[in-house]
Amino acid sequence: MTLDARSLIKAYFAEGTLPGLPDGHFIGGRIVANSDGDRLESYDPGNGQAFARFGAGKGEDVSRAVEAAQQGLAAWRDTPPATRCQVLNRAAALIRERSDYFAVVEAVDSGKTLAEARGDARSCIRLFEYYAGIADKLEGRSIPLGSGLTSWTEREPVGITAQIIPWNYPSSTFVRGVAPALAAGCAVVAKPAETTPFTALLLAQWLHEAGVPAGAVNVVTGLGSDAGAPLVRHPSIAHVTFTGSVATGVGVMQAVAPNVTQLTLELGGKSPLVALADCDVDKAVEGALWAIFSNAGQICSAGSRLVVERSIHAEMMEKLVARTRTLKLGHGLKDPDVGAINSRQHLDRIARHVEAARGRGCSILTGGSATHDPASNSGWFFEPTIIDNLAPSDPAIQQEIFGPVLSVQVVDGEEEALAMANATEFALVAGIYTGDIGKALRLARSIDAGQVTINDYWAGGIEVPFGGNRKSGFGREKGIEGIDAYVRTKAITIRH
Ligand code: NAD
């Protein structure tokens, strides 16, 4: 699709739909209709209107996709690694060429802002380029056993991998699994979230166009219970990468157990941003603002808890509230600061959390209600919200809200800050703002999290491994570690 963003946006607001959206699953290198003809509607969260339909996949569609993946695997596994590099680089180039269209589709389907969707397109490009660079470097080692024996290891693809994708980062979560899986020589069957199916379908088509053989990447859309559940249970699936909520992740873990299928779990978070008394308060305010309000707070790794030292608490709150009140909400294609909440159902969930906090007498400094795009008086939005001075046991501290809601905890000193940072069942990300490098390093090593950033909450990129501990899951994606789930080691020894 070569249309530029401006023409696409104009056409979308005039017609209420977008051109070129795939209508069906992507199986065996082509778009195919759903086995029973059943379809679901996809809604634009920015105005609450349905804009396209997609297949409501069932077990039969999953079986067709896994069969196609068996053929795709045979072809792709034997494709020379150098060719795999070239194909993945071509896929990156296609996304770059089509990034206007891609970003507009992602913004409409998910509710995020166009700037955020463009950022996701860049992540997809980088992920393909990064793992293209690894495809031809999956080397083994030789093992010294003495004369008469020669032993070495090879790293082989695990086989067919299932990718279960959430709705908050529909394209970049898809690619962060698919790129290393393809680099390793695996085949893929992916199941996007039921509210955001389109960019995964587009990417699967473009990968095929770039040279990925038919069947090596398949996408089955539909509900988790109808399409996701049969996929993860399928005996031909060698590895499942699941990104989503803790409750569903636990169910997936149980579902894969009988087949002893490998599993990566990327689950929820309640990540702390620790602001110590000696930090640069203005930088910490800006860091905290975007740690929670990027993507309207719908990020597993959002800095959803601010753990602040008492002596800077009042100053920080004053500045943070003032800055929060400047944020403009709106339809993602109008490129506001904060976009929509992905579904009506999730908006209600966020509102219930905040209502319950209000009912407990919590201090809501700003925001606190569901709202609309002020320009159209429609869509699913939640005001950027700050709840102050919460007790460690408060549900707003312990539970993932997954929306634009910052929960604040006040502490005295580094030791209490550490204790609070670690005092939830999650352990995904932590941010530390301080002018004292000694404190920064002590905290970075003692906080239980998969990744810690110092004096910038979102520092890093696709080169940096990402994943959680405890109820945030296990396994790592991105970075060189991201390939590990998709290769297994085989040792071969010869007596001679
Ligand atoms: P969800 O668990 O409801 O759904 C995630 C995916 O699982 C969807 O595709 C859904 O259709 C599918 N699914 C549902 N039931 C299934 C089943 N029985 N078997 C197989 N698949 C099934 O999560 P969500 O609401 O879409 O996403 C939000 C959650 O995801 C939050 O908790 C967030 O923290 C988490 N998340 C984590 C990361 C991470 O990298 N750690 C990234 C993004 C989101």
Structure description:
The structure is a single chain. This protein has 496 residues and is an alpha/beta fold. The chain has 2 domains: 5-267 and 474-491, Aldehyde Dehydrogenase, Chain A, domain 1 (3-Layer(aba) Sandwich); 272-461, Aldehyde Dehydrogenase, Chain A, domain 2 (3-Layer(aba) Sandwich), CATH 3.40.309.10. 40% of the residues lie in helices and 23% in strands. The chain contains 15 helices and 24 strands. Strands 14-17-18-13-12-20-21 form a 7-stranded mixed β-sheet, sandwiched between helices. A 6-stranded mixed β-sheet has the order 9-8-7-10-11-23, with helices on both faces. Strands 5-6-24 form a 3-stranded antiparallel β-sheet, with no helix packed on it. Helix 3 (81-97) runs antiparallel to helix 6 and helix 5 packs parallel to helix 6 (170-184). The mean pLDDT is 98. InterPro entries: Ald_DH/histidinol_DH, Ald_DH_C, Ald_DH_CS_CYS, Ald_DH_CS_GLU, Ald_DH_N, Aldehyde_DH_dom.
Can you list the strand order of the major beta sheet? 14-17-18-13-12-20-21
Helix content: 25-40%
Count of alpha/pi helices: 15
CATH architecture title of the largest domain: 3-Layer(aba) Sandwich
Q: Bin the strand percentage.
A: 15-25%
Using DSSP, what is the number of strands? 24
- Using the alpha-carbon principal axes, give the shape: globular
Query: SS-based structural class?
Result: alpha/beta
Low-confidence stretches: none
Task: Calculate the terminal CA-CA distance, rounded to whole Å.
Answer: 59 Å
Q: Taking Cα atoms only, what radius of gyration do you get, to the nearest Å?
A: 23 Å
Calculate the mean pLDDT score and round it: 98
Number of domains: 2
Question: For this structure, what is the CATH homologous superfamily of the largest domain?
Answer: Aldehyde Dehydrogenase, Chain A, domain 1
Quickly name the level 1 CATH class of the largest domain: Alpha Beta
Bound compounds, each kind once, are:
nicotinamide-adenine-dinucleotide
- How is the biggest beta sheet arranged? 7 strands, mixed
The third-level CATH topology of the largest domain is: Aldehyde Dehydrogenase, Chain A, domain 1
Family: Belongs to the aldehyde dehydrogenase family.
Keywords: Oxidoreductase
Organism: Aquamicrobium soli
Protein name: Aldehyde dehydrogenase family protein
